[in-house]
Amino acid sequence: MAYVVNGIQCQPIVEKCDGCERVKAVDNEKYCGSYPVPEKKWAHGVCNFATHVKAEKDTGGKVKINPLKASKRAARGR
Prior knowledge:
Layout: E1 3-5, E2 8-10, E3 23-26, E4 29-32, H1 38-41, H2 67-76
Antiparallel strand pairs: 1-2, 3-4
């Protein structure tokens, strides 16, 4: 049996969703409270609704600095 909210049919969560605060249990089945098709959210990496996964910063690349702000800082002596 499918879980329907406001006319939208929700699919059960995938294994990667376990531990998320948005998971709701209905009739011995777990569903996402934010998105009806959780499998699609995990298709391209980490789900943006996932509360149990921390986002990682890419610190390996160079940090972009606005050239206008950089020139103003240099003029002030910073």
